[in-house]
Amino acid sequence: MQNNYIEDQTFEKEDFTENNPKKADYENCNFINCNFSNANLSQINFIDCQFDACNLSNANLNQTSFQEVLFKDCKMLGLNFEKHNDFGFSIKVINCQLNHSSFYNCKLNKTHFNQTNLQEVDFTESDLNQAIFSECNLQNAIFKQTNLQKADFRTSYNFTINPEINQLKGAKFSLDSLSGLLTKYQINIESGY
Question: How does pLDDT run across 103-150, given as a tens digit for each residue?
């Protein structure tokens, strides 16, 4: 079955909690103050779209495609990105609540997370090569067998990353955040004498 094609549309203050969005290819569309909480977004393709101040918490992302998609000021709790369609997957996340979500085994090369809460997010076996975490709270985020080569954590905080089970070659950290790499060793790190 061929999807519908929707282009250059703006959806504002739409509530998709009871009536799911139409299965379609949405290209160059803007979603502003829309509620997708618990909505079924499966098999929908979002291409060059922007979500502003939307609630996508617990939405079904089974085979959902996100290509060059910007999420800004969104509530995105409990999302399972591991079920998405990874063809052309590319997102940028700015000032969002993404807590309790999963990116298990996702390809997130060069993804930008800016001023975003990523508490208890699962990045197990993900490819975050050259990803940028700018001013993000990563408290209790899970990094296990994760490719973090050339990733930038210099302005982020509250993370714990075990260097023995993750790939860190070329990753960037600030001096203040080094304790997040040494937690496993139960070392006390103090500034000054």
Answer: 999 999 999 999 999 999 999 999 999 999 999 999 999 999 999 999
Token duo for residue 91: 């997102």
> Does the predicted TM-score (pTM) go above 0.85?
yes
Give φ, ψ of 192 to 5 degrees: 70, -165
Are 150 and 129 in contact, with CB atoms under 8 Å apart? Answer: yes
List Cβ neighbours of 121 (8 Å cut-off, separation of 6 or more). Answer: 98, 99, 100, 101, 102, 103, 138, 141, 142
Burial 115-140 (b: 16+ CB within 10 A, else e): ebbbbbbbbbebbbbbbbbeebbbee
pLDDT in tens, 4-37: 999 999 999 999 998 999 999 999 999 999 999 9
CA distances from 28 to 23, 47, 84 (A): 16, 6, 19
CB neighbours of 166 closer than 8 A, spacing ≥ 6?
A: 143, 144, 145, 146, 147, 148
